[in-house]
Write a structure and sequence with these properties.
The chain is mainly β. Helix content is 9%, strand content 38%. A hairpin with a 7-residue loop joins strand 4 and strand 5 (64-68). The protein is elongated, with a radius of gyration of 21 Å. The two termini are 21 Å apart.
Length: 260
């Protein structure tokens, strides 16, 4: 069975201003801490069919959907991006109503440097992280929103500078969180699995991967070089997978990797 090791947790409580200062759709704000980005806004609408969160590195082209908002109820909403790319991350919402009307939000940029991503712990896929987004709450403090009609991005940046992020105690969060293996791990930039084992020519290494129902999904009977890159498409779906790394007939390590 999976052991829940609460060493690193990626959930935030987003504290923003008075309700009128919280941006209303189609405007969004965001903030970042320890390589995890949080988007927040207030929905004043009933009858939403879906809200897709899209991300691009250039703010104009190549927007791709990275997940959907789980909570569509009227009021405060949020999205957690636990796997941003190094550099600029431009976000926008694609909003669909039950009436089939659709439109986009403003675009919002969050910059994340590569060193921060490398230092980040292992997290579940973005789809799983959205269960935590419902814990983000709007507090009533004292920030006012300056009025700059026609410049929504600049206005929102002034708000986000006053957003405070806090991480709750690990024991308060029910989420997969586990120690990152030094031999088998997910590359935070590509999402592929990397294996690096010592003295690969001297010892017979092998590895097996299992899903969370302990069904084997992938096996490499002999590791002939190091490092080895395993394409994430070999796992066929996103999620957390267990592995057993063998050194000869002895189990060298058991652990988990996230495919996102």
């Amino acid at each position: 069975m999976l052991r829940f090791l609460t060493i690193f947790v990626g959930v935030f409580i987003l504290l923003v201003t008075k309700l009128h200062a919280q941006p209303l759709l189609p405007e969004i704000v965001g903030a970042s801490d320890k390589g995890i980005n949080v988007l927040s806004w207030t929905s004043q609408y009933d009858g939403l069919k879906s809200i897709a969160v899209q991300r691009s590195s250039d703010s104009v082209y190549n927007f791709a959907t990275i997940g959907y908002v789980k909570n569509l109820k009227k009021g405060a909403q949020a999205f957690i991006d636990g796997h941003p790319v190094p550099g600029d991350n431009w976000y926008r919402l694609y909003i669909a109503f039950s009436s089939d009307l659709t439109w986009y939000s403003n675009r919002f940029k969050i910059h994340v440097d590569s060193a921060t991503i490398m230092a980040k712990g292992v997290l579940p896929p973005n789809d799983s992280l959205q269960k935590l987004a419902s814990r983000i709450k709007v507090d009533t403090t004292s920030v006012t929103r300056p009025a700059q009609p026609g410049k929504p991005v600049d206005t929102l940046q002034q708000i986000v500078n006053k957003i405070r992020l806090s991480i709750p105690d690990p024991g308060d969060v029910d989420v997969f969180s586990y120690i990152k293996s030094q031999y088998v791990f997910t590359n935070p930039f590509t999402g592929h699995v990397t294996m690096e084992v010592p003295d690969v020519k001297k010892y017979h290494y092998s590895i097996k991967f299992y899903n969370m129902n302990n069904k084997k999904v992938l096996e490499i009977p002999r590791i002939l070089e190091s490092p080895v890159i395993i394409d994430k498409r070999n796992f066929q779906k996103k999620g957390v997978f267990k592995f057993d790394l063998m050194k000869g007939d002895e189990k060298m390590e058991s652990g988990y990797v996230t495919i996102y």
